[in-house]
Amino acid sequence: MNNPLLTQDLLPKFDHVRIEHMETAIDQILSENRMKIATLAQQDDPTWETLAQPMQALDDHLSNAWSVISHLNGVKNSDDLRKVYKNCLEKITEYSTEVSQNAALCEAYKKLAARDDFKDLSEAQRKSVENTLRDFHLGGVDLPEEQKQQYAALSRELAELSNRFSDNVLDATQNWHKHITDASELAGVPESAIDGAKQAARQKELDGYVITLDFPSFFPVMTYCDNRDLRREVYEAFVTRASDQGPDAGTWDNTPLMAEILKRRHSLSKLLGFNNYAERSLATKMARNTDEVLDFLNQLADKSKPVAEQEYAELKAFARDEYGVDDLQAWDVGYYSEKLRQQRYDISPETLRPWFPVDKVVPGLFRVAEKLFDVQIEAKPEVETWHEDATAYCISRNGEPLAWFYFDLFARQGKRGGAWMADCRVRWRNLRGQLQLPVAFLTCNFTPPVDGKPSLLTHDEVTTLFHEFGHGLHHMLTQVDVLDVSGINGVAWDAVELPSQFLEN
Ligand SMILES: [Zn+2]
C-alpha cells in the first residue's frame, strides 16, 4: 500500500494516514535527502538552480510529511502517536544538526553567494541564501569537531526536553477533573457552561457535572461561580498544572525540565560565542540587542504598573464594600471583576454570547477577509480531515485557487489547549515551474456545541478567531515563490504578530 505521507498531494489524505505510516515516511525522506545532499554539496560552481532550488525541494518534502505528523500530535494526541512523534523528532533533530554542520554544503552556499550574478537573483532568493548562511553559523558549522558534537548533543536534548514539557502540560490538563453531583455548587455559572459540564460528565459516564481544565470549562467557573471554595479548588488545579504544587504535585512536574532547558540553552549559546541565550535568540530577530528588549519591557512596565495597581485597589475596595470580602484572593479576581463590570457598565461577556453563534461568526469573518483582500472563501466539506469538527476551505480570487486552510475550532480530549496557526504546505515554485499552494491549519479551543445547540462564542473567542485568521492570511496570501521566505517562513519572530494583530484590531 502507498504511504499517504509520501505522496505529493496538496491536501493530505487524512482518512488514510495511520500511525504506522509516520516513522517509515520520515526514515525514507531523511535517507533520500541525505543522499541527495551529499551530491549537491560537491559542486564546483553552484547556482541558485543547481543548489538552493533543489535544497528547497528536499526541505519541502520533509516538512510536508512532518507538518501532518506534528499537527496530529497536537490535535489528536494518543500514547501511540506520542511514541512515534518522539522518535521522529529525534531523527529530524539529528538530521537538521547534521545539515547545518555540513561544511561542504556551507562552502557551496558561500560560493553561490560570491558569484558575480548573485546580485541578479530576486530579493527573495538573495534573502533565502543569506538566511541559510546565517543558519549554518547558528547551527555550529564553524565549530571544531569536538564542539560540533557537543552542539549536536545539546540540540538533541533540548528537542527532547521541550517535547516532554508540552506532553506534561497536556497530561496535567487532561487528567484533572472535578465531579459535581449537586447543582447548587455551580450557582452563578451560566447555562452554556452548565450544559458543557453535563456533556463532559456524560462523556466520562458520570452523573451530574464535570469541570475540566479546558479553558471553556475553567473560565466560566472562575468568572461566575458563587462558590468560593470551588473557585479556589479549580484555580489551584489550573495554575499548578505540571508543577511541584497542587492536587497532582510532582506527577508531571516541569520544574526540573525548565532548569535543564535553561542550562542547555546557555551552553549552546556560549558554544556559538554569545554571552547568553537572549543574545542567541535575537540573532534571527528584529530587535538589535538585549538592551533594546529590556528597555522596551521596562517602558511597558513603567506605564502599565501604576494603572494595574490602581485597578486592583479599586477591585479590593469593591469586594470589601459590596460583598464583605476582606481578603481578596487570586481565585476571586475574575469573579469580582465581573461583578464590578456588571455594576458599572451593565454588560457581561456572557450576555453577548447569543450575538456570536459560531455559524454566524465564521461567515462574518470570511466576509471581512473577502472584502479586504479581494478573495472568495468556500467550505469544502468533501475534503478529508482528522476529526468531524474539522473542515477544509479554499481561498480563491476570480475562480483561481490561492490557498487552502482547515478550521478545527472546539476543545476536546486529546487536543492541546490554546489557539494557533501552523503551516501544512508552504507556497513555492519548483524547478519545473510548478506552484505549490499554501495550506494552513487553524486550531482553536472554543466552547463546543452542546446537544445540537450551536456553539455561542464570547467576544474574546471572536477576537482570538480573527487573530489566528490573521496569521493564516499572512501564510496563505503570500506572493513569494521561494520556500524559505514565503508566508511565515523566515519572518523574524518579533514581527510575526503584526498581521494577526492587524486583523484582530
Ligand atoms: Zn499570534
What does this structure look like?
The chain has 505 residues and is of the alpha+beta class. The protein has helices at 19-40, 48-75, 79-100, 103-114, 123-138, 145-175, 191-203, 215-224, 228-239, 255-271, 277-282, 290-323, 330-345, 349-352, 358-373, 459-476, 498-504, and strands at 177-180, 209-212, 376-379, 390-397, 400-410, 420-425, 428-429, 435-436, 439-446. It has four domains: 10-143, Glutathione S-transferase Yfyf (Class Pi), Chain A, domain 2, CATH 1.20.1050.40; 147-271; 286-347; 354-504, 3-Layer(aba) Sandwich (Collagenase (Catalytic Domain)), CATH 3.40.390.10. 56% of the residues lie in helices and 10% in strands. The strands form three sheets. The protein has a five-stranded mixed β-sheet. A two-stranded antiparallel sheet has the order 1-2. Helix 1 packs antiparallel against helix 2 (48-75) and helix 6 (145-175) packs antiparallel against helix 10 (255-271). It is globular, with a radius of gyration of 25 Å. It starts with 18 loop residues before the first helix and ends with a helix. The site of zinc ion (ZN) has 4 residues, from helix 16. Zinc ion binds next to helix 16.
Concise synopsis of the structure shown:
This protein has 505 residues and is an alpha+beta fold.
CATH architecture of the largest domain: 3-Layer(aba) Sandwich
So how many helices?
A: 17
Sketch the topology as an H/E string, one letter per element: HHHHHHEHEHHHHHHHHEEEEEEEHH
Give me the CATH fold name of the largest domain: Collagenase (Catalytic Domain)
The best one-word shape is globular
Helix content range of the residues, please?
A: 55-70%
> Which blocks of ≥5 consecutive residues have pLDDT under 50?
none
Number of strands: 9
Helix-and-strand structural type: alpha+beta
Fraction of residues in β-strands: 5-15%
As an assembly, this protein is single chain
